[in-house]
Please model this.
Amino acid sequence: MALCAALAVLLPGTGRALDEDGHAARRADMIRVIERHAFSAVKALGRRRIDSRVLDVMGRTPRHLFVPERLRGEAYDDRPLPIGYGQTISQPFIVALMTDLLAVGPEDVVLEVGTGSGYQAAVLAPLARRVCSIEIIPELARSAGQRLEALGHAGVETRTGDGYYGWPECGPYDGIVVTAAASQIPPPLVGQLKPGGRMVIPVGGPFATQWLMLVDKLADGRVKTRQVLPVAFVPFTRRSP
Ligand code: SAH
Model:
């Protein structure tokens, strides 16, 4: 009995003994946590719920396969986790919120800046027609590309590069999601948005408050911005010349 209790405490920490059912159960718990969190963030969301299509996809996406093996037991906690190279996979609630704000339609072409582990791209893939994701750290770009392909997301295109300049050949875009905090909204990204398109981006310097911003490009090309929520993202970096 004492041994069982000890095991029960140890196993969640290591995560190694969790089978697919165990991960699925934790994923379902994660979705409930996201729903509760959304309920308490009504003002930021402008409504009480995250789009059910977003929650469905996140309920199916194996986040444990996007984190280092030693952290798999924590993959469905609602917090960011390290993925190497000083970077993190975003907190699940923030992924849900950003995807919801992007309001992706089935015919949309979406750009992600900051592929990282590939998790956000995997969540976007079933919701959009085409997802292009750019990452500045070559090793992360490569491993995320391989991971997405192995998981059957052949439709996601990835490449290494400085996302400040976007990815013009893949655009123009209905939606752009930036997953690292920039000190200002990069003008080339606004340029690659279609009129009527939207961008979700954390804005703020490394020592200043960062705000998640929703950027709407109006039909006449003008831009409207709204501060959604204070957030904490890894910094947007630039490639040294
Ligand atoms: N969306 C990722 C989160 C990654 S963290 C996920 O789901 O796992 C942010 C990522 O942005 C990091 O991998 C970082 O290397 C990348 N990044 C930072 N500045 C960048 C830039 N200028 N262009 C492209 N990627 C950048």
Observations:
- The longest strand covers residues 193-203.
- Residues 173 and 227 are 21 Å apart (CA to CA).
- The domain at 2-7+80-231 is CATH 3.40.50.150 (Rossmann fold).
- Strands lie at 81-84, 87-89, 109-113, 130-135, 156-160, 173-178, 193-203, 210-217, 223-231.
